[in-house]
């Protein structure tokens, strides 16, 4: 996002904190689709992503009065969606239903479509990475956030983000090599 967009978000947050309810609808219009896409990159399920973002908006609205730096609204809201998406994934892992469905999908893929098969292999390999590496990969490559923005979203240092990105790429190379054999 550009500096002017951060400033505009900051203005909308200040307006909302001052009692202007219309500014909230503008914030929702500006960020809802982006937040849904962000959540989708964790869940790979459109409906679940919409539900997560809807739940996130409840949290965002209830805590918007406590936001100290209004210009950081975008990364703050993204952080909330990230955490709720990860909470959802954690529940799925505990139930093991998600893992079973991945294995079923992997065994029933049509081998005639090589590209789709490669994409599925990549998604499966990404899911085998530790969650902290998955997050950095998704934010950097899929969402195209800078390392500085990732620092803000995940509340980690740029050096830690770089390290996680490096180790995620190395692990992915290994995983994809072993899957090709």
UniProtKB/TrEMBL annotation:
Signal peptide: none annotated. InterPro entries: RNA_pol_sigma-70-like (IPR039425), RNA_pol_sigma-70_dom (IPR014284), RNA_pol_sigma70_r2 (IPR007627), RNA_pol_sigma70_r4_t2 (IPR013249), RNA_pol_sigma_r2 (IPR013325), RNA_pol_sigma_r3/r4-like (IPR013324), WH-like_DNA-bd_sf (IPR036388). Keywords: DNA-binding, Sigma factor, Transcription, Transcription regulation. One of its GO terms (molecular function) is DNA binding. CDD domains: Sigma70_r4. Residues 27-94 form the RNA polymerase sigma-70 region domain. Residues 121-172 form the RNA polymerase sigma factor 70 region 4 type domain. One of its GO terms (biological process) is DNA-templated transcription initiation. PANTHER family: RNA POLYMERASE ECF-TYPE SIGMA FACTO, RNA POLYMERASE SIGMA FACTOR HI_1459-RELATED. Belongs to the sigma-70 factor family. ECF subfamily. This is RNA polymerase sigma-E factor. It comes from Flagellimonas eckloniae.
């Amino acid at each position: 996002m550009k500096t002017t967009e951060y400033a505009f978000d900051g203005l909308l947050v200040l307006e909302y904190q001052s009692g202007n309810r219309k500014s909230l609808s503008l914030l929702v219009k500006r960020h809802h689709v982006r937040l849904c896409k962000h959540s989708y990159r964790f869940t790979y399920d459109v409906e679940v992503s919409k539900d997560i973002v809807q739940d996130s908006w409840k949290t965002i609205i209830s805590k918007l009065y406590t936001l100290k730096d209004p210009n950081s609204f975008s990364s703050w809201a993204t952080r909330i969606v990230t955490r709720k998406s990860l909470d959802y994934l954690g529940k799925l892992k505990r139930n093991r239903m998600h893992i079973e469905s991945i294995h079923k999908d992997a065994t029933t893929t049509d081998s005639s479509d090589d590209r789709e098969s490669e994409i599925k292999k990549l998604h499966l390999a990404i899911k085998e990475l530790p969650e902290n590496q998955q997050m950095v990969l998704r934010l950097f490559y899929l969402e195209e956030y800078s390392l500085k923005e990732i620092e803000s979203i995940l509340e980690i240092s740029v050096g830690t983000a770089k390290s996680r990105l490096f180790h995620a790429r190395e692990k992915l190379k290994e995983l994809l090599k072993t899957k090709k054999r």
